Request: fold
Amino acid sequence: MSHVVVSGANGFVGRALCRALLDAGHRVTGLVRRSGGCVDGVTEWIDSSTDYNGIAETWPAGLAADCIVHLAARVHVMHDTAADPDAAFRATNVDGTLRLAAVAQQHGVPRFLFVSSIKAVAETDNGRPLREYDAPRIDDAYGRSKRAAEEGLIRLGDATGLEIVIARPPLVYGPQVRANFLRLMDAVWRGVPLPLGGADARRSMIYVGNLADALAHCATDPRAVRQCFHVADSTAPTVAELVRALARHLGKPARLLPVPASWLRAAGRLTGRSAQVDRLIGGLQVDTSHIRDMLGWQPPYSTDEGLSATADWYRSTH
Reply:
């Protein structure tokens, strides 16, 4: 069995990944900024330095890991208040990532799995599911930082022999989900009419349990070395289908107004929110054939099972 270090082990995805690794019999060390929040069985490694500036000093004596899974990041936000968002994202998502990877290589860690984002390729699919080798069409500072980190890691791997593996998930959902997905559930729960009945473009997502399973494969399978993988659920619902499924699992009516997508885009242009509207109703399907062909990976949970588990959690908190 392997010894895997997980940065951000006490976060939404980190906790699910640690459970998957422990259940498979692996040893897990959680690299976190503060104590607490890791699942039972994870050994904590505390590094509170900014963007891993002190990682060389806090490296635990005798730590011999087989892989570092790097989840910790400055995440995408809709209304960034940073004076220079590109610089803020670069400091954490690029400089911090490369700093951690370089120190890991110096300590003999053979593999570094970087959890990137589909935003490192594009926000929309332009009518065809996004593939790993598609030319990037990046719209925001977060996506640019993830792409730059990928490219920096590949150069580091080429120069040092560190085995770089990259995973690009789309939107992640599941129990304890936050941000836009949680706001959508809040709206369905409260019975807010949503003008999304005409939103028929399909958008890939990934249930956190499926992402954890895929990352566990990427961290431990020898065939994953020097590969980039798009990971997603087997099905990509439309936004209207998603709302209906959430409403069904929450036991609420789906209050969907049949507003044409063209009207929503026009409203977005008038209000200066075109990017937000496009992210909501534009198509974003992900081609996952590479990880299926290379590693034989299949999502262990269906989208409906994932939505059911998410709704069960939500109901338990309301």
User: Anything to note?
Assistant: The mean pLDDT is 94. The radius of gyration is 20 Å.
